[in-house]
Amino acid sequence: MVYISVLGYGTVGSGVVEVLKQNKDIAARHAGQEIEVKYVLDLRDFPGDPVQEKIVHDFDIILNDPEVEIVVEVLGGVEPAYTFTNQALCAGKSVVTSNKELVAKHGAALMETAKAHRTNFLFEASVGGGIPIIRALYASLTADHITEISGIMNGTTNYILTKMYEEGAQFADVLSQAQAYGYAERDPSADVDGYDACRKIAILTSLTNEQSVNYEDIYTEGIRKISAEDIRYIKQMGRNVRLLACARKNERGMYAMVAPFLLEPDHPLFHVNDVFNAVYIDSDMLGATMFYGKGAGKLPTASAVVSDVIDAVKHRGALINMNLPAQQMRLLDFDSFVCPFFVRVRREDLPEIQKLLPVAQELEPLIENEAAFITEPVSQAAFAAAEAKVPVISRIRIYT
Amino acid sequence: MVYISVLGYGTVGSGVVEVLKQNKDIAARHAGQEIEVKYVLDLRDFPGDPVQEKIVHDFDIILNDPEVEIVVEVLGGVEPAYTFTNQALCAGKSVVTSNKELVAKHGAALMETAKAHRTNFLFEASVGGGIPIIRALYASLTADHITEISGIMNGTTNYILTKMYEEGAQFADVLSQAQAYGYAERDPSADVDGYDACRKIAILTSLTNEQSVNYEDIYTEGIRKISAEDIRYIKQMGRNVRLLACARKNERGMYAMVAPFLLEPDHPLFHVNDVFNAVYIDSDMLGATMFYGKGAGKLPTASAVVSDVIDAVKHRGALINMNLPAQQMRLLDFDSFVCPFFVRVRREDLPEIQKLLPVAQELEPLIENEAAFITEPVSQAAFAAAEAKVPVISRIRIYT
Question: What is the value of ipTM here, to two decimals?
Answer without folding.
Answer: 0.96
